[in-house]
Design goal:
This protein is an alpha/beta fold and 344 residues long. It has one domain: Bacterial extracellular solute-binding protein, family 7 (D-Maltodextrin-Binding Protein, domain 2), CATH 3.40.190. Helix content is 41%, strand content 18%. Strands 1, 2, 3, 4, 5, 6, 7, 8 and 9 form a nine-stranded mixed beta sheet that branches. β1, α2 and β2 form a beta-alpha-beta unit. α2 runs antiparallel to α11 and α7 packs antiparallel against α13. The two termini are 29 Å apart. The relative contact order is 0.17. InterPro entries: DctP_fam, TRAP_DctP, TRAP_DctP_sf.
């Protein structure tokens, strides 16, 4: 990652050169907060989760630090909770230039770069660190390039956490417990195949509709992190939760590639530096938030919680292992050989 060391004087000089004309050797101060959008760089950052989630808090911190370190020259406007676009719409909005920055789940970008479904493979990662290491691996670098070829510039990777299973009618412990249950899923062929292998049905719904379709009984079950379960109030319409940690949910922080290329080098460097700092902070925050939300779920006594045993986990893995062959048949082995448990 490029590093930026820039003095206050030199940065003010750069901004001054862009924004106003010097009169002989004398310059005049500018109140960047009073500049119009035409005189500032405005980044519209849209996401679909709540403001108090790890992604919501990180996006707000990112916005604050960028504005602070550019002295107001760059403004990041954050729109949470699908305020501008639903998760089924934000990729198109990014590519059309209607927003400049989003942070979708890896499953979401698979509609454009299907190879990213590697992150949906069940039990692929045992920790957040393993997921991050994969993103930085040669396979991860190829996947990032594929994003850029489609008009999306990769900036960073944010954590959410591991997914758990919830259900309305009974506990999900043995693979046979999934038979004929309908799950809400994100748009991902691999996730659809995952539940098909378990004998379940699946229905794609946007994140903002999860609570509604569960409440109305259109679907009976779903998979999500502790943080999302609590923040979307899913626990109020589900009676059973299995702590399975079967899949990892992370976010790709991406920008419209053309917009990124048009940014001044100095601004690019500041954005990357801030993101490096915020990403480290966000990773610790995500861990803590999920721990806190799990405690909330235990303390509320609103769902029967089952911890998947090692024996049960092996049964799930055996039932879902064919997904790895499915992925290889579609996209080749090059993307899965860097998954930690498959490394030779």
């Amino acid at each position: 990652m490029r590093q930026l060391e820039i003095t206050s004087f030199s940065f003010v000089f750069i901004i001054s050169t862009i924004l106003f004309v010097s009169c002989s050797a004398k310059t005049y101060p500018v109140d960047h907060e009073q500049l119009s959008e035409d005189e500032r760089i405005v980044i519209r950052f849209s996401h679909v989760v709540g403001e108090d989630t790890p992604k919501g808090l990180a996006s707000r911190r990112f916005a604050e630090l960028v504005e602070e370190r550019t002295d107001g020259y760059v403004e990041v406007q954050v729109f949470p909770n699908s305020f501008l676009y639903k998760d089924g719409e934000e990729l198109d909005a990014l590519l059309d230039g209607d927003v400049q920055m989003i942070a979708p789940a890896t499953s979401k970008v698979s509609s454009i770069v299907p190879e990213w479904q590697v992150m949906d493979l069940p039990f692929a990662f045992d920790s957040e660190l393993e997921a991050k290491e994969y993103i930085s691996s040669p396979a991860g670098e190829v996947l990032k390039k594929k994003l850029e070829q489609k008009g999306m510039y990769y900036l960073s990777y944010w954590d959410n956490g591991f997914k758990q299973m919830t259900n309305k009618h009974h506990s999900l412990q043995d693979p046979k417990d999934f038979k004929d249950v309908t799950f809400r899923i994100m748009e991902s062929e691999l996730l659809e195949e995952q539940f098909k292998l378990l004998g379940a049905n699946s229905q794609v719904e946007t994140f903002d509709q999860v609570f509604s379709v569960l409440e109305k009984g259109h679907v009976q079950a779903q998979e999500n992190t502790f943080s999302n379960i609590v923040n979307k109030n899913i626990h109020s319409v589900q009676d059973y939760m299995t702590v399975s940690n079967h899949g990892y949910l992370g976010y790709l922080v991406i920008m419209n590639a053309d917009f990124w290329e048009d940014l001044p080098d100095e601004v690019q460097m500041i954005i990357l530096d801030v993101l490096e700092e915020v990403t480290e902070w966000q990773a610790e925050l995500a861990k803590q938030v999920n721990q806190d939300k799990y405690k909330t779920l235990v303390d509320c006594n609103c769902m029967k919680i089952h911890q998947l045993s090692e024996t049960e986990k092996k049964q799930w893995e055996e039932a879902l292992n064919p997904l790895y062959d499915t992925y290889i048949e579609r996209f080749g082995a090059e993307y899965i050989e860097y998954i930690p448990k498959l490394k030779q």
